[in-house]
Specification:
With about 260 residues, this protein is of the alpha+beta class. It has 6 helices and 9 strands, in the order αββαααββαβββββα. Keywords: Membrane, Transmembrane, Transmembrane helix.
């Protein structure tokens, strides 16, 4: 009986000691877990301070309150706003560019823009002018001749040797126009003295002709002549007519030849 009681006491003490150890181990384990948990939580950044960028890297977060959003939107609006004077300047420059392009396209390389005045005209082969001038200068009374085209006007400037009479000059000028007309080779209607170049075609009059004749002959020089498409006649006018601009042009032509 006594022996049994001793064994029972020993078992009770053993259980008590074992329980105390287990409690201590549990307490120690709980402290370690709390410490590890605290360290882990301290290592992890707060969701309020970081976000993941497009590459998956953490970056510092920016304020997302309503005031910040409005400030960013206002900055963007101010950045892309175009002022009225800038729009006006762009429109003005565009108009200038369009006008310059129109001038070059419409005018080509033949000088000013004439619009409809040059429309429906028969084309003249200017490369034939040199041959015509050489043929006319073959006459001993002719010092020089120059032929040019300005839109719908053919201009013929002739200088004659000294003491050439005004009547001779007029006849040589008329012959020069016939030589030019024949060389260019356009169709001539029956009964007309000149081809369609110097009459009418395409429903309208074609080229007018202007003459400037100079010489140190009689007092009628310089002589000016005109021919209209509706007429086969050339009208000549002497220097006694008051036309200072035409007189100056004739004098300059003579000086340059």
């Amino acid at each position: 009986m006594v022996q049994w009681l001793k064994e029972d006491i020993n078992m009770s003490q053993r259980k008590r000691f074992s329980f105390d150890d287990e409690v201590d181990d549990t307490i120690d384990l709980s402290k370690d877990d709390l410490k590890n948990s605290s360290i882990t939580n301290n290592d992890k950044p707060s969701n309020d301070n970081v976000f993941a960028d497009e590459d998956g890297l953490d970056a510092k977060a920016y304020p997302t309150d309503n005031g910040g959003d409005k400030s960013m939107k206002n900055k963007k609006k101010r950045k892309f706003k175009i002022k009225k004077w800038q729009i006006a300047l762009i429109a003005f420059l565009s108009i200038i560019i369009v006008f310059v392009i129109y001038v070059f396209v419409a005018g080509g390389n033949d000088g000013p823009v004439y619009g409809d005045r040059c429309a429906s005209l028969i084309a003249i082969d200017k490369s034939k002018f040199t041959g015509v001038e050489d043929a006319i200068k073959a006459d001993p009374s002719v010092n020089s001749i120059n032929i040019e085209v300005d839109c719908r006007i053919v201009k013929i400037s002739m200088n004659f040797v000294d003491n050439t009479s005004s009547d001779t000059a007029k006849q040589l000028a008329t012959n020069a126009l016939h030589t030019l007309d024949d060389t260019l080779g356009e169709n001539k209607e029956e009964g007309r003295a000149y081809s369609n170049l110097f009459t009418t075609a395409n429903g309208r009059g074609q080229y007018n002709v202007e003459f400037v004749l100079t010489s140190n002959g009689d007092t009628n020089f310089p002589i000016f002549g005109t021919k209209h498409p509706n007429s086969d006649d050339i009208t000549f006018t002497g220097a006694n007519v008051v036309d200072q601009a035409a007189t100056d042009r004739a004098a300059n032509t003579n000086a340059n030849q």
